[in-house]
Sequence to fold (70 residues):
Amino acid sequence: MRRLVIAAAVALVAAACGGSPTPDAASLSPADTAGEQPTAPDFTLALGEGGTFTLADETRPVYMIFWAEW
Fold:
């Protein structure tokens, strides 16, 4: 009986984790359909060490992580 319950739970989880449908062409932006990466608007931030960071001055890819603990 316990194996049956475990098998049913695994089957339920597997069914719930089904793949999401692919987006249709109407929901994609022109940058997505052309194979180009979307770009962020330019901005400048004050750094804790006293300097500034300007996105336009950066030559390498920039990864931004937004974090909030609520």
Notes: The two ends are 42 Å apart (CA to CA).
